[in-house]
């Protein structure tokens, strides 16, 4: 099995055509009917460039995607509550390693007004627990496009609602984002949806309506909420006075009703502002005190996000977001949970009884284990495009701070995309916070990962 | 007699002393240059080649469409790492759709969706006459030199110096400048080609920049055609479906 797995991870990289590197230094002779030009006189050689008709020929089908290999080193914090909760009965050392391999495969076939689209993830990883794998369809749907104004899709789709980069409180029909890596693909839900678009002259330039039928039944979106319900969601979009505005809602009985809006606007040529507001009716929140007493509260939750993206004259991009998560836990509520976890771990060590540990773990699997379970966050990402004239090289620094307890993560990264169809990313993350804080009590003190991707496309 | 002399004197001054460009309508000339470059509504394919000082290069293939004065959209066809990315411009508004992200995000005209010297404003360019006023025209040999000033602060380059062939009324060179007249980049229009349908224009634009010493970028054009599109094609909702427009 291990050999098979290694082969799965390594073979794609061996089979990547050597020409993908060689093409960086081509010496091509132009053909008769192609567009040609001479390189500037100061270029290293008087190369000629060509534009072949075959490069722009359209085929009805497309297959593409990428191979990815991602080794990760986690530095563990043995004093942290979540470390004790996870590794209470085993010693895995000071560090653990993950080796993740992935084949992301996309395919489509279009004929006339019909189309089918598929995105699948074939993942294989090795952790301290051993080997694991995933074969999952992230998106797979049929599409009917009778006119440029109307599209009807049926199947599994990702909707990606919201304008926020790190968080999307209005994403009522999407799985949560990972704020540490917001561009990671997410699995969709099965739904029937339509998009009707209309354009105008005047202050309202575009108007679109996207209703969604969202079933929740056994084996159909069954992790979403209460089963055997047909929910209805929708989005109304307008480009009004050069501002993107969405009105969004989800009604039905699988979850409580929720409504929201978002906006995005370019203030100047180098400054963009965006925001989201979400209202969740009758939200239920279960919390635990430091002695393990569980209480449940119901309330109307009003979450919002405000963000800016600014491009400086030095080509530095600053992305800043403030997120108020009304469904989250205050710093004292989080501290209570961590105190409870510590207590039950101590009890386990002294008595060997696991009952309370299981209770804490169950709570963690719920709301306490969300990516960011707190109430108020700041996100700042600073990325520098091509410093020192190194083309396709983008270093960046990202920090996420829980404003309630002042704990934070800080992540430097180096991204290089200078070899055709290859992407290399080295990323680190340090978690900083005192006892009883969100980032101070996570199981890791730091993380270092290297990610390499090779993209392919047929035709 | 004195009146006649005065009239002749004034006419003489006007004829001999007035600069030649006074007879040229700058706005009309710029509109003519725009129409000679592209039909008002079109589809086209472009290849953008970034060349590093070492000679190493990266190529991007791009399909783009335009309608009227302020609607432009584009789709990356190659390389595989960029395939499916689409861009949309409605006047001052610009968006980038990345398949992995799954939704359009707003971008600014000064950013570049690809590396290299061409930025979003170059890739999603509108008519020059839609974004610039002609401040002054000079005649230099076989060329006009048009001094252009951005109509609003939202335009990527505050000033342009545009050299155009007098007979063909096609640009030969454009210098892109800041408000303080600092040179950002120079575009060289080359290799005039008949694309059919009455479109005869440069098939390549080369650019260099003092901000990227030693680097060059080249844009090659192919299959430029007059084509009308519905307004609904130029919307955020349509961005993931742009490939369906290609024939």
Give an account of the 3D structure:
The complex is a heterodimer of chains A (459) and B (247). Chain A has 459 residues and is mainly beta. Chain A is built from five helices and 20 strands. In chain A, the strands form two sheets. Chain A has an 18-stranded antiparallel β-barrel. In chain A, strands 1-2 form a two-stranded antiparallel ribbon. In chain A, a hairpin with a 2-residue loop joins strand 6 and strand 7. In chain A, helix 4 (331-351) runs antiparallel to helix 5. Chain A is globular, with a radius of gyration of 25 Å. Mean pLDDT of chain A is 89; it is low at 1-47. In chain B, strand 8 (143-150) and strand 9 (159-165) form a beta hairpin. Chain B has helices spanning 2-17, 26-37, 120-123, 128-131, and strands spanning 42-51, 57-67, 71-78, 86-90, 93-97, 104-107, 132-140, 143-150, 159-165, 171-177, 183-196, 199-208, 216-226. Chains A and B meet through strand 1, strand 2, strand 8, strand 9 and strand 12 of A and strand 1, strand 2, strand 6, strand 11 and strand 12 of B.
Sheet of most strands of chain A: 18 strands, antiparallel, barrel
Q: Please, how many helices of chain A?
A: 5
Q: Spans of chain A of 5+ residues with little confidence (pLDDT < 50)?
A: 1-47
Largest sheet of chain B: 13 strands, antiparallel
Structural category of chain B: mainly beta
| Proportion of residues in β-strands of chain A | over 45%
């Amino acid at each position: 099995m291990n050999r098979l797995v290694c082969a799965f991870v390594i073979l794609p990289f061996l089979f990547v055509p050597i020409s993908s590197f060689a093409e960086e230094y081509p010496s091509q002779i132009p053909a008769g009917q192609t567009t040609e030009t001479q390189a500037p006189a100061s270029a290293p050689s008087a190369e000629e460039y060509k534009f072949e008709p075959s490069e722009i020929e359209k085929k009805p089908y497309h297959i593409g995607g990428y191979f990815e290999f991602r080794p990760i080193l986690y530095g563990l914090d043995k004093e942290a509550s979540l470390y004790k909760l996870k590794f209470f009965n085993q010693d895995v050392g000071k560090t653990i390693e993950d080796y993740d391999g992935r084949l992301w495969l996309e395919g489509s076939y279009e004929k006339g007004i019909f189309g089918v689209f598929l995105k699948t993830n074939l993942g294989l990883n090795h952790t301290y627990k051993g080997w694991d794998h995933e074969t999952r369809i992230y998106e797979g749907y049929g599409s009917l496009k009778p006119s440029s104004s109307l599209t009807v899709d049926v199947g599994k789709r990702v909707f990606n609602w919201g304008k926020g980069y790190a968080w999307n409180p209005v994403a009522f029909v999407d799985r949560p984002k990972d704020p540490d890596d917001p561009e990671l693909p997410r699995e969709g839900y099965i739904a029937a949806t339509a998009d009707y678009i209309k354009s105008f002259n005047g202050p309202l330039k575009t108007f679109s309506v996207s209703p969604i039928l969202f079933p929740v039944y056994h084996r159909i979106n069954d992790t979403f909420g209460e089963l055997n319900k047909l929910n209805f969601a929708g989005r109304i979009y307008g480009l009004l006075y050069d501002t993107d505005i969405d009105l969004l809602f989800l009604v039905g009985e699988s979850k409580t009703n929720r409504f929201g809006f978002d906006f995005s606007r370019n203030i100047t040529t180098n400054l963009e502002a965006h925001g989201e507001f979400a209202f969740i009716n009758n939200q239920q929140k279960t919390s635990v005190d430091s002695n393990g007493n569980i209480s449940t509260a119901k309330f109307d939750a009003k979450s919002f996000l405000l963000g800016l993206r600014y491009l400086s004259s030095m080509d530095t991009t600053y992305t800043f977001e403030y997120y108020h998560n009304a469904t989250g836990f205050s710093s004292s509520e989080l501290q209570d949970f961590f105190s409870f976890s510590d207590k039950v771990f101590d009890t386990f060590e002294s008595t060997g009884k696991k009952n309370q540990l299981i209770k804490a773990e169950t709570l963690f699997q719920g709301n306490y284990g969300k990516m960011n379970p707190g109430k108020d966050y700041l996100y700042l990402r600073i990325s520098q495009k091509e410093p020192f004239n190194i083309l396709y090289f983008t270093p960046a620094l990202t920090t996420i701070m829980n404003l309630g307890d002042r704990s934070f993560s800080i992540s430097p990264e180096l991204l290089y995309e200078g070899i055709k169809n290859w992407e290399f990313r080295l990323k680190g993350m340090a978690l900083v916070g005192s006892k009883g804080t969100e980032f101070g009590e996570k199981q890791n003190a730091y993380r270092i990962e290297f990610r390499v991707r090779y993209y392919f496309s047929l035709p | 007699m004195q009146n006649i002399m005065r009239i002749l004197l004034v006419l003489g001054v006007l004829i001999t002393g007035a600069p030649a460009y006074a007879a040229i309508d700058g706005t009309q000339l710029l509109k003519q240059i725009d129409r000679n470059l592209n039909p008002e509504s079109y589809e086209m394919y472009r290849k953008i080649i970034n060349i590093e000082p070492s000679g190493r290069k990266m190529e991007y293939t791009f399909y783009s469409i335009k309608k009227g004065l302020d609607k432009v959209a584009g789709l990356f066809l190659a390389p595989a790492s960029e395939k499916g990315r689409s861009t949309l411009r409605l006047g001052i508004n610009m968006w980038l759709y990345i398949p992995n992200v799954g939704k359009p995000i707003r971008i600014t005209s000064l950013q570049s969706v690809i590396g290299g010297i061409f930025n979003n404003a170059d890739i999603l360019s509108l008519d020059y006459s839609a974004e610039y006023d002609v401040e002054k025209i000079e005649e230099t040999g076989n060329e006009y030199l048009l001094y252009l000033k951005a109509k609003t602060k939202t335009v990527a380059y505050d000033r342009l110096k545009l050299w155009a062939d007098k007979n063909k009324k096609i640009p030969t060179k454009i210098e892109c400048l800041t408000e303080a007249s600092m040179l950002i980049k120079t575009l060289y229009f080359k290799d005039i080609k008949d694309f059919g349908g009455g479109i005869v224009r440069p098939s390549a634009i080369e650019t260099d920049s003092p901000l990227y010493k030693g680097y060059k970028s080249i844009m090659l054009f192919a299959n430029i055609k007059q084509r009308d599109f519905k307004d609904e094609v130029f919307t955020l909702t349509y961005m993931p479906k742009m490939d369906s427009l290609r024939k």
